[in-house]
């Protein structure tokens, strides 16, 4: 929304596409920002890398906790 609201990109579709491609760190380069906004797209890309990493770590830990909880429940149920 910010890219569209500040007039950096011509329409909402281009702004969403650019943001998704940048956040996922694919960076095709078919849509680019002006020199004044280049740093914003770089920060968005770094943010995407960090959030994908944190999400992976979180899901791994939840899976580990769920597995250990299941094993503990099975041990309690067996006499």
UniProtKB/TrEMBL annotation:
This is Ion transport 2 domain-containing protein. Residues 4-62 form the Potassium channel domain. InterPro entries: K_chnl_dom.
């Amino acid at each position: 929304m910010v890219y569209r609201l500040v007039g950096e990109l011509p329409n909402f579709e281009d702004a969403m596409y650019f943001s998704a491609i940048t956040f996922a760190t694919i960076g095709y380069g078919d849509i680019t920002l002006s020199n004044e906004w280049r740093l914003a797209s770089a920060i968005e890309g770094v943010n995407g890398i960090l959030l994908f990493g944190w999400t992976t770590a979180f899901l791994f830990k939840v899976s580990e906790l769920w597995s250990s909880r299941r094993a503990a429940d099975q041990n309690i149920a067996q006499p």
